[in-house]
Amino acid sequence: MGLNSYSFRVRYAETDQMGVVYHGNYTQYFEMGRVEWLRAMGITYKSMEDNGIMLPVISLHIDYKKSALYDDLLTVHTHLKSKPMVKIEFDYTLTNESGELLATANIVLAFMDKKTGRPIKCPDYILEKLDT
Amino acid sequence: MGLNSYSFRVRYAETDQMGVVYHGNYTQYFEMGRVEWLRAMGITYKSMEDNGIMLPVISLHIDYKKSALYDDLLTVHTHLKSKPMVKIEFDYTLTNESGELLATANIVLAFMDKKTGRPIKCPDYILEKLDT
Amino acid sequence: MGLNSYSFRVRYAETDQMGVVYHGNYTQYFEMGRVEWLRAMGITYKSMEDNGIMLPVISLHIDYKKSALYDDLLTVHTHLKSKPMVKIEFDYTLTNESGELLATANIVLAFMDKKTGRPIKCPDYILEKLDT
Amino acid sequence: MGLNSYSFRVRYAETDQMGVVYHGNYTQYFEMGRVEWLRAMGITYKSMEDNGIMLPVISLHIDYKKSALYDDLLTVHTHLKSKPMVKIEFDYTLTNESGELLATANIVLAFMDKKTGRPIKCPDYILEKLDT
Fold it and tell me: Which of A76, B43, B88, D16 has the greatest number of beta carbons closer than 10 A?
């Protein structure tokens, strides 16, 4: 379970005129992090949605330490904080190719029934993967 | 029918490290243009979608003449090119507060049935508005 | 000083396939909030940058209460939390046309010298505006 | 010289409430295409900018054939159309994992001196790479 690391390059479109990645775009990096964390367990978020479960973000906290730059090869490290119940919580770190810490983050998402819009428990097939 | 003009400010997030608006973000400006063109006729694109009609873009052409800058007050001028059938075609110009021409564009969208995904004719309630 | 409210419409591009505004795009709304808060005092962020001062975000916290929807007329309420020193801290609420609370946020930015990249104090011309 | 192919996954943030990739986000895909085309020749766009050359887009044409979907593994095929002079022109195709054609595009960029903002010729070190 624990940790997944995923690397990708900063796109030009993600920068702003400060010459660094726009702070709001980090949310996309952390999203890729948890999607690839799931995929590494053999689950796709796409299939979860196709099966009627959505995972809206309910809380987001990012601390920016150092700027991310265009064309940087970044790595997002995704760490499940505790056993998911109706919510799932991740801690993240974002590093560049030199291993410098660019940002830390904590993001909480809620399992939601797509049809009813109501909160539901974490599906068993995810809990089972986490136990192994 | 003819022309609608809509003004708005450039957001910081829309710039890139070239110090100008990222070229891809103009697509959002033209989208606001046609949405406000519709609203000026008393129709919202939102209600169209709620009534089962989607309008995907099928062709996009933009010529960039002069850079748009952060905090600029831009105006998008939206002009319906011809009577819509299964497609609807708009010509656009984008100007800044000094009246300088920043870009021209031509965008074609298709009326589509949301359920079937199939092309349909422009709804009568739009054609009627255009005739008045 | 205190509070500024700024209203704007949700763009189609800001939604995701969950049918609501993508959580990361709220960062642009809060950015518009503080830019308009400054403008209401007679200062533009653009002129600050032109004068060599940048304001990178160093900490971001958003709590999502209720979804923002396409074409919603939203209002971002920007509140300066305390007298700015080397940092400036804002509390935000985001509401829709019905007055429903969609999100709360706290964002901290740092005053930075554009040339040296070093932290600096809040410029006097801002502090003076805050005193009046 | 000719052709470069680059694959990547569609991010959730790139979709809109139509349930497909927002049409404006294709511009980022084509940008990755030409950046990786350059990198395959041993040149980074980042180093070009560091050496005082910018490449703004001056014309963009996209034809949308079929929707790109969340989590799709897409491939952008970048083809240099002719020997670059003061402009450089690329033809693109975008395909999904099944090999279906999603979009074609033609994008023209101009070589520009970063300091003067004036058009310049394609740098010799690029022309030399193209000749080999």
Answer: A76
Residues 6+ apart with CB under 8 A from B13: A16, A22, A24, C27, C28, C31
Q: Which of C67, C88, C65 is nearest to C78 (CA)?
A: C88
Per the structure, the complete domain to which residue D65 belongs is given by 3-131
Residues of chain D contacting C, Cβ within 8 Å: 12-13, 15-20, 22, 24, 70
User: Could you report the per-residue pLDDT of C80-126, keeping only the tens digit for each?
Assistant: 999 999 999 999 999 999 999 999 999 999 999 999 999 999 999 99
Task: Write the CATH number for C75.
Answer: 3.10.129.10
User: What is the helix (H) or strand (E) element at residue A36, kind and residue range?
Assistant: helix A26-40
Interface test with B, best of A11, A22, A23, A70 (most B CBs within 10 A): A22
Sequence-distant (≥ 6) Cβ neighbours of residue D127 within 8 angstroms: D83, D84
Distance CA B85, CA B119 (A): 10
In the block, tokens 């010509």 appear at B91
Domain count within chain A:
1
Tens of pLDDT, residue by residue over D96-131, are 999 999 999 999 999 999 999 999 999 999 999 988
How far apart (Å, rounded) are the C-alpha atoms in residues A101 and A77?
11
